[in-house]
Amino acid sequence: MTPTDLTITPRDRRFGRDRAAARHWLNGDPIATAFFNALSVTFPRGEAYFIDSVRAFRDGAPDRLAGEIAAFIKQEVVHSREHLAFNRQVADHGYELSRLDADVVRVLELAKRRLPIVSLAATMALEHFTAILAHELLRDPRLLEGADPEIAALWRWHAVEEIEHKGVAHDTWVHATRDWSGFARWRLRSLMMLIATKHFLHHRARGMMDLLRQDGVTGVRAWGGLLRYALVRPGILRRVAGPWLSYFKPGFHPWSVDDRALIALVDSDYADARMNGPLPSAA
């Protein structure tokens, strides 16, 4: 279960507004850069979908969960704002992002046709995916070693908050399905993770290949480079395979792994950005 002493704290921080990073901002490596850039393109629309999916079940939630949902929404709003700003920087380097964005729109339009409880299950699955990726980013600083400092700060900040709110969609799901049998919960939860993972891997790989084509990296060099980056060195997808599988355990909860110690490693860098009160502006 979610730790009773957990506090979800939005941090209103702006990154890299007054400077331009290099086109290949992660060690000058087009493959590593494409990996993160393609992820970032998905976040503004994806996180708006997460917000809507969770907010649909906020009414009638226990007070504590309702407060966590409100904090989750604040965090996701700021994530969307900052990744929109980052994506504009990516586009300023001459990358055409419209195809990647259109891909996100198509997938989300299909998702929005489903029942709200199915959208919540999809959100829960993807929130677990982002949380285990965030865990690796904070656990191994080498993943962002050599990155532009402001962009590295953006990704670490995002990772902190993804870990912090990783139980909200799950706890909302548990509340929304409180009258379901354990098997019915497990079946839909597991099915949506399989579907979400298939779409995530397929569409993100396609987006990364699109960005690499724009850098003149194609064919075996592109696919081989991406597979090596994702599965071998540094192998970030290989590293999250075990935590991904844990999702299918009966009785799974995101906070079965309490990784708040990882947050503590970097949270002091964002202490001045801690926020209370209304949502921040979108500027």
UniProtKB/TrEMBL annotation:
Keywords in alphabetical order: Hydrolase
Tagged with keyword Hydrolase: yes
Pfam family, one: Metal_hydrol
Molecular function in Gene Ontology: hydrolase activity
Protein name: Metal-dependent hydrolase
Originating species: Sphingobium xenophagum
